[in-house]
Amino acid sequence: MLASEVSSLLDHLGVSSDRRRGAHAVRSPLTGETIAHVQDASPQYAAEAIALAETAFRRWREAPPPRRGELVRLLGHELRAAQDALGRLVTIEAGKIVPEGRGEVQEMIDICDFAVGLSRQLYGLTIASERPHHRMMEQWHPLGPTGIITSFNFPVAVWSWNAALALVCGNPVIWKPSEKTPLTALAVQTLFERAAAKAGEVPEGLSTVLIGGRDVGETLVNDPRVPLVSATGSTAMGREVGTQLARRFGRSILELGGNNGSIVCPSANLDLALRAIAFSAIGTAGQRCTTLRRLFVHDSIHDAFMAKLKGIYASVRIGDPLTSDDVLVGPLIDATAFESMQRALEEARAHGAHVHGGERVDKRQFPDAYYVRPALVEMPAHTGPVLHETFAPILYVMKYTDLDAAIEQHNAVAHGLSSSIFSTDMREVERFLSTTGSDCGIVNANIGPSGAEIGGAFGGEKETGGGREAGSDAWKAYMRRVTSTVNYGDDLPLAQGVRFEI
Ligand code: UN1
């Protein structure tokens, strides 16, 4: 049933029939059924894509950046026109609810707008020289073909954060999407090709998609013609990608896991905090890298707050998001995700936790899909499974009495992506945002840790990988920095006052 809807969505999005056959079966997490087939890229095809990108780079780097921006503007235009169809395909292929599928495409449109503006900026500095009649400056030049490895949970937006910036910076892009979500990738590539045809003078191979598994990713990571790979996914994947790239002095932008925490202080607006926590912990079925996984609640408000939170967890509507607008929680991506969730909950019980929810629902209706009630886990201590990221809707709740101790505990995990504090006491908020507060890349107040806007730099510290994508000056990672010193005098004064008379 879903297969025929997918087929008409792909028709509507213009995905050609030769892209829709092959041995790679695509499954929808909504029902577990096969919705389409695609072809994996052979190693030769991958090598050809890299060679084409290298040739495209020679032309594209010479295009004035605002002209590159025009291509991205047209891509944004295609995305606007395709927002509903592509968003729905995201829902079917990745399982997120319809407003979130649509929201993901909005994130793509937003970064295109950002990148168009950026294409008239990309500025360097003029730096004061210590020598008379010298000018020192910084320029930013295109870097080269950029590999983009993305994950199932944001199957299209993460490509766009990287691609929109890389393209205006003068770099071709080669995309390896998750094996679980190739259809949305092929749809986006089709939209890109349509934008490219309208823009004109876009070199062949400026953007390509390589469907496939680990071997395809490795081709990108190991090829010296790809100077930069941006990889989003698990810490285990990032550790391999990062070290293999480092061996050949390739650059990486790593956006890996998160074990994100929030602190609820006694002065917080509790209704606001409840709504924010529900969205961050339950939304996207806990499958965002920014999902809230650890909650520290002050003991003076703990019991009343937990009573309300339990009410939300017990009543939230779970199910196939295509059947009802009230559904807020779609399925987990697959059986492996379900099993790792159950393992984490067992471990929590073994550590003395009280687990509310976490069970599979609608199993009879959907034997091959994995719908779960989000789990609210009252932990006696910050220990065991709390210290690890499980990519599922599990919220561990701990009590705290002293804010400094809570911040210390908040930071005592391997990841450092996103965090937040709920408080109306500006001293507490500022403390959390300060040098000695949260150690994450994203530190919020009175909103949850998930759902970042594209205008800021996105990424985090420690085992999150240290990369930054999207807004602010994240574009600099896609470019080659050049320091230039120009002597416009007739003398040759040397730096540091060195004398070298010949
Ligand atoms: C991810 O889960 O990999 O901040 C990205 C957010 C989204 C992006 C999440 N804008 O939750």
UniProtKB/TrEMBL annotation:
Domain named Aldehyde dehydrogenase: residues: 23-480
GO molecular function, one term: aldehyde dehydrogenase (NAD+) activity
Superkingdom of source: Bacteria
EC id: 1.2.1.3
Protein keywords: NAD, Oxidoreductase
Family matches, as InterPro entries: Ald_DH/histidinol_DH, Ald_DH_C, Ald_DH_N, Aldehyde_DH_dom, ALDH7A1-like
Protein name as it appears in the record: Aldehyde dehydrogenase
